[in-house]
Design a protein that fits this description.
The protein is α/β, with parallel strands linked by helices and 440 residues long. Helix content is 33%, strand content 19%. The chain has helices at residues 17-25, 61-71, 78-98, 130-143, 209-216, 247-251, 271-285, 299-305, 307-315, 372-389, 409-427, 429-436; strands at 5-13, 32-35, 52-53, 123-124, 148-151, 154-162, 165-173, 178-188, 221-222, 227-234, 255-257, 290-293, 325-334, 337-339, 351-353, 358-359. The strands form four sheets. Strands 1, 2, 5, 6, 7, 8 and 15 form a seven-stranded mixed β-sheet that branches. Helix 1 links the parallel strand 1 (5-13) and strand 2 (32-35).
Length: 440
């Protein structure tokens, strides 16, 4: 029905790890509606290869805390970092209880790995498809819940608010019909902005819609120029999403080589440091890529540990254990976003943000590898718990909405992109000139 008004207890925009876990953590007597722009499985959480960090024991707390802070250039919110690390054992335990499978060693114990800027092995993984394993498990469970409903191919095009209180969203479905979803609480879990970049590991429809609407409705944002460029995406001249060669490959001994076949950096430094080293080599040799190779494993070992990555390289004609595989930096992750506290609350009442959409300060200026899935899970649960405990009254408000005022899809998408890119340029012209000014 056109211009339908749907009422529910909670609406979650986004079906990635953060959105799904928030939905599962809400009370069973609350009706939850999850909308997603494309198919349920087309979220960046599915693409997370490396793993998920966990505090193995209390003796590692100081080291893990310092590794996260150092990678973030000490611009992190220390309270958020502390909450994330301390909450990690319980969250990982909850995942295991839900059926998530992590790789184990020959004794049946968890097989912890290490990635760049980690001084200790503290990363759990499922081959090289950890995000897919977690997201698919959560989605399978959520689909069976009577209180959770999914709308696919449904896009949030506006926020409904009055006097700085959020009452719902305006949506558009794949046939172009528009309507409103009115809810007590609204959770933004729309991911990052990779779809706005020419080279990105993100799905192309992840275009930062929540950030544009935040700017339009004076919802506080933070560090919108803190955008992580991943050093190693599989080089290709084809258009579309770039295939990520996970940092965990370097954690297992992969090295980077320049055009002369020379190793030029410590591969286990923070991502921004490695990216800058690669950029220097590309400039030095006037090339648009460098190379990665994994001499510490046989083809059989690499195919077992990194099946997805090994196969993707082989499809391009490279055996990563023997050949030099061309790689280039690409946009990967948003550290900034909608500003929240440690419970996912935004500057607008009854509006929450979780996952990559949120900026609670945990990542600082540069995200430590494999903290993204953990951060999404920890703060999604905290937001759900706070919402469940909120017994305050909220006025009923169903606005008269003029749906005809919203421009058609292509015009709207162009407008949204311009708004976000202008904000990035305003915050950091140097970053914009280096990574954004060819994104037309």
């Amino acid at each position: 029905m056109e211009n339908e008004i749907i009422k529910t207890d909670t609406v979650i925009i986004g079906s990635g790890v953060a959105g799904l876990f928030a939905a599962l953590c809400l009370p069973k007597n609350q009706n939850v509606l999850v909308i997603t722009k494309e198919d349920l499985k087309e979220c960046d959480s599915y693409l997370a290869q490396g793993g998920v960090c966990v505090l193995k024991d209390i003796d590692d707390f100081k080291c893990y805390f310092e590794d996260t802070m150092k990678a973030g250039h000490y611009e992190n919110n220390p309270e958020s970092v502390k909450v994330m690390i301390e909450s990690s054992p319980d969250v990982i335990g909850a995942l295991v209880d839900l059926g998530v499978k992590f790789d184990t060693d020959t004794d049946g114990d968890f097989d912890y790995t290490r990635e760049g800027a980690h001084r200790r092995n503290r990363i759990l993984h499922h081959k090289d498809e950890t995000g897919k394993e977690i997201t698919a498990t959560l989605l399978s469970i959520a689909k069976k819940k009577d209180n959770i409903t999914f709308f696919e191919k449904t896009t949030m095009i506006d926020i409904i608010e009055q006097n700085n209180t959020c009452y719902g969203i305006v949506y558009e479905n794949e046939s172009g019909k528009r309507g409103s979803i009115i809810a007590r609480d609204i959770i933004l879990a729309t991911g990052g902005i990779g779809g706005l970049f020419k080279n990105s590991t993100n799905y192309p429809h992840i275009t930062g819609d929540a950030f544009t609407l935040a700017l339009k409705h004076n919802i506080e944002l933070q560090n919108m120029n803190y955008i992580q460029i991943h050093p190693t995406t599989l080089y290709s001249k084809k258009s579309g999403r770039r295939f990520l060669i996970s940092e965990s490959v370097r954690g297992e001994g992969a090295i980077l080589l320049n055009e002369n076949g020379e190793r030029f950096t410590d591969e286990l430094q923070p991502r921004d440091v490695v990216t800058n080293a690669i950029c220097r080599e590309m400039e030095k040799f006037s090339t648009d890529h460098v190379y990665i190779t994994l001499p510490t494993m046989t083809s059989e070992e690499a195919a077992k540990r990194f099946p997805n990555i090994f196969d993707a390289c082989m499809e391009e004609g490279y055996d990563i254990t023997k050949d030099k595989v061309p790689v280039t930096p690409g946009q990967h992750y948003m550290m900034g976003g909608v500003k929240t506290d440690i419970n996912g609350k935004t500057s607008m009442s009854h509006l929450y943000a979780v996952g990559e959409t949120a900026c609670n300060g945990v990542h600082g200026k540069n995200r430590l590898a494999s903290n993204s899935l953990l951060e999404s899970l920890v703060f999604a649960k905290r937001a759900a718990d706070l919402m469940a405990a909120d017994n305050s009254e909220k006025d009923d408000f169903v606005p008269e909405t003029d749906y005809s005022k919203y421009p058609p899809k292509e015009e709207r998408e162009a407008e949204f992109k311009k708004i976000i890119m202008n904000e990035i340029k305003r915050k950091d012209k140097a970053f914009y000139d280096k990574w954004c000014n060819d994104e037309n």
